[in-house]
Amino acid sequence: MEVKTSLLDNMIGVGDMVLLEPLSEDSFLENLKKRFDHSEIYTYIGSVVISMNPYRSLPIYTPDKVEEYRNRNFYELSPHIYALADEAYRSLRDQDKDQCILITGESGAGKTEASKLVMSYVAAVCGKGQEVNKVKEQLLQSNPVLEAFGNAKTVRNDNSSRFGKYMDIEFDFKGDPLGGVISNYLLEKSRVVKQPRGERNFHVFYQLLSGASDDTLKKLRLHRDVSKYNYLSLDSAVVSGLDDAANFRTVRNAMQIVGFMEDEVQSVLQLVAAVLKLGNIEFKPESRCNGTDESRIKDKNDLKEMCELLGIEQSVLERAFSYRTVEAKLEKVSTTLNVAQAYYARDALAKNLYSRLFTWLVTRINESIKAQTKTRHKVMGVLDIYGFEIFEDNSFEQFIINYCNEKLQQIFIELTLREEQEEYVREGIEWTNIEYFNNAVICDLIENNKNGILAMLDEECLRPGTVTDETFLDKLNTVCAEHQHFESRLSKNSKFLTDHSLPHNCFRIQHYAGKVLYRVEGFMDKNNDLLYRDLSQAMYKANHSLIKQLFPEGNPAKVNLKRPPTAGFQFRASVSTLMKNLQTKNPNYIRCIKPNDKKAPHIFTESLIRHQVRYLGLMENVRVRRAGYAFRQTYEPCLERYKMLCKRTWPHWRGRAREGVEVLMADLQVPAEEFSYGRSKIFIRNPRTLFFLEERRRQCLQDLATLIQKIYRGWKCRSHFLLLKKSQIVVAAWYRRYAQQKKYQRIKSATTVVQSYARGWQARKLLRELKYQKRCEEAATTIAAYWHGTQARRELRRLKEEARRKHAVAVIWAYWQGLKVRREYRKFFRAHAGKKIYDFTIQRIMQKYFLGLRNNLPSMSPIDKNWPARTYLFLDGAHAELRRIFHLWRCKKYRSQFTEERKAVYEEKLEASEIFKDKKALYPSSVSQPFKGDYLEISKNPKYQKLNNAVDEKVLLADVVNKINRANGKGTARIFLPTKKSVVLADQKTGQVKASVPLPDLTSVSVSTQSDGFFALKLKEGSASAVKGDFLLSSEHLIEIITKLHRIGATATDREQLSIDISDEFLVQFKQDKVCVKFVQGAPKNGNSVSCKRKNNRLLEVSVPATA
């Protein structure tokens, strides 16, 4: 079941200002602040949405939010811009009513973002399909293009729209978009040539310079440096949070999606570049012989590049900047332009060129997004236009902008009252006239065809003779002096004696939003918007196809001597067309408010917002809405919301909804003058009545909640008791079953024990009988055995006694024989016994020594220095000789396993030992490292194929070394390639040979005694290789490199042996200067690495970390 919600539920502050009680400007601002502090940025005034710019991202625009507000009643959920967009879209789709959404507010209030949100919501909720999606994408992608060319950074807004935009989106009968039409109003083209301090020119200039490729900029003859262009301000060239390069790519992609051809895009970029080039054209004064002043171009390079871009002859455009031709009937008069007039002509051409380009872009987008079918369409218009502007210095632009806002306020009041009146008539409620301020008198002051300010401005522009801004002001003082909304220092309404805020060159108009002071300087020039005919004709002569379209009046065959319409006349006509268009549609309003001037979140500046509330006329809007009935609601939701307040309607009302509401209001005793019954709605006059109903509903909901809690707790306790009772029965049944099972198990176990005891007793009885029988048998056998043993032992003793007697006789006989022999040979035995015993002992010792040596021989490794210890001192010489013979034999066996390549490596290792052992601290760490030679695999790596082919001979070593720069001591990676005839140094990245030194030109190599990898290749003085001086290099394989260079010199017969100098200080020849390289030990830095620093022009100091 769907839960019914309302705007009044969980309300922070008051969601609809119509219900604000009491109503005052302070309570209005307090309510806005309360909602803003809780991130509630939307508030209603009836059907009008107030939008506060939060200056941060809020999680209220997700796809889930879109679905939440889709097909929901306007007041059903909390205020949101999606609610207004959905209401407008459903009215268009279901009721066939054309809609328009008017978005107003000052710069930085979020108008552009609001229009994007409306369009994105409509795109999300309308139909799907390939063609529909294409149309939606084109409509959405038109925004980045127009923003790039029509938006700029101002002091109030980083993405301020500097033009008014009205887009008609066309839908078919199903509500699917078919296309659209865009209208633009009053582009601020003066920004092209001049920007206020802290502001930028239009975005597209900065996006082009930041995001275009180098090739594109070269074709457009542009540089990336913004400071090179006079039309671009430098103080705000870079905006925090604005990526111009990424935005340029977005614009290019958007133009492609909208339907721009590549040649059209290039033409547009060429015109943008031409505007930048125009700003760099400067003039110098020059006097003619007749005494008149004329202007000449200082530097013609920018003019030349601009003419090349646009295909214009340089002489034609140069003359157009220097001369002006005035045609009157059949006469032509050519006059020279002074420097000021030339600059005016240049800026006028730049403004017209950019303005016409922008108009062409809008027309081209309309061609792409317009509906293809010719049947009648439903239309939704979105108006994003400047808000009311009150600056310190207000000029012509602010005057016509505020005029447009006066017209919008007029139509807003008219349409709001008409909507109210139509609803009252539709519901059958008596309409009473509402008192309100009608600003038609202000609109008439500005737009009256005879005495209006715009009409007098046009009249002054067309009047012959001397016409200035001061004469225009004089005419205003004459014609408008009696008008109650016009003031100047000479008018009747101004308080001249006390009001010193009115300078002589200003006038003041009392607008609906307050008084605005206008300075008349520039009114005439800006209204004339004059472009000399010579420049138009010069532009038309261009070979650029787009330029011819932008300047059709330059066609000599269609010369029109009529003066072009003024800017004020054109704007008044376009505003009139817009008003007629809006009056045919059902209006929807979004009022955007800027919370602070710092563009920062969570800051609510009350004075600034109070000012905007006044000039937006929001209080007037609330009063108009509250003049009749403040709140209205259809009977069904009203009854659904408040039915619990009456026993007769609660919980269900069986009759019609209106009858239920009538019963409800009668039961609540609400005074009859506080409400009225319409045909489908109830109208409540005072918000206090609504809040009374809400308070009663809140109390009733608390009572109902208490009742529901009571019933729920009783049900919960009963359910719990029944569950416990049921559980007790189940537990008892299971326990009884368990007890019986346990009893049965005990009986069964006892029976088993009794049975086992009985069977055990029977078994043991049988066992005793069997054991007794067995013991009787064993006893008889044992007695017999003992008897036989006794007999045998007696016989054995007899035999032993007999044998002892025989042995004793033999022993006595032997002793006797031995005594006789010893007596006979005693003299011979004593003469040789010592020598025989010695020889026998020595022989036994030697045998034991050799056997022990065989069992304890060391391993076959030549570097194994272990040898068994000698056991006897007299074997010391033999022990050492055997150790030497074994080592020689072991080395011979080890050498027999070597290949020729391995022998060569060991020979290099041996030579390295002779050169560096006990001389270089780096040598011990290199002994265990094999000499690999080709570390880069130069013959296999395709990256070095070209380098390998460039070296004719066999490469003995390929490694990356660092070539030390004398200037700063830093290294540059080089590939080091020694051969039998030369040493080659090549670039590591490209493989290009940087230096090739023949070995005869190499005289010596210098290295330090420490653990660094630095070495210097010293060249023969006067040789061709020594022009740039010696080479100071650094390598991780220094020992191997020096050894190979030394071997190459040793094997060559046609040159001297290479000298190797090992010292901590040596001289290196750099071109014409000799530099001392000094090696010192220092504390470890940068990961224990060696560092080289330049101390002066004659000393490079290499700091080597001290080794433990």
From TrEMBL:
Q: What is this protein called?
A: Unconventional myosin-Ib
Per the database record, which ranges form the TH1 domain? 920-1106
Q: Tell me the SMART domains matching this sequence.
A: IQ (SM00015), MYSc (SM00242)
The record's Gene Ontology cellular component field reads: brush border; cell cortex; microvillus; myosin complex; plasma membrane
| A GO molecular function held by the record | ATP binding
Task performed by this protein: Motor protein that may participate in process critical to neuronal development and function such as cell migration, neurite outgrowth and vesicular transport.
Myosin motor domain location, by residue? Answer: 12-698
Name the Pfam families on file: IQ, Myosin_head, Myosin_TH1
Q: Where in the cell is it found?
A: Cytoplasm, Cell cortex
Provide the primary localization: cytoplasm
Which of UniProt's keywords are assigned here?
Actin-binding, ATP-binding, Calmodulin-binding, Isopeptide bond, Motor protein, Myosin, Nucleotide-binding, Phosphoprotein, Repeat, Ubl conjugation
UniProt lists the family membership as follows:
Belongs to the TRAFAC class myosin-kinesin ATPase superfamily. Myosin family.
Query: Which intervals of the chain are annotated as region Actin-binding?
Result: 575-597
**Phylogenetic classification of the source organism:** Eukaryota, Metazoa, Chordata, Craniata, Vertebrata
Annotated binding of ATP, by residue: 105-112
Per its UniProt record, what PROSITE patterns does this chain match? IQ (PS50096), MYOSIN_MOTOR (PS51456), TH1 (PS51757)
User: What highest taxon heads this organism's lineage?
Assistant: Eukaryota
Species annotation: Monopterus albus
Instruction: Give one GO biological process term.
Output: endocytosis
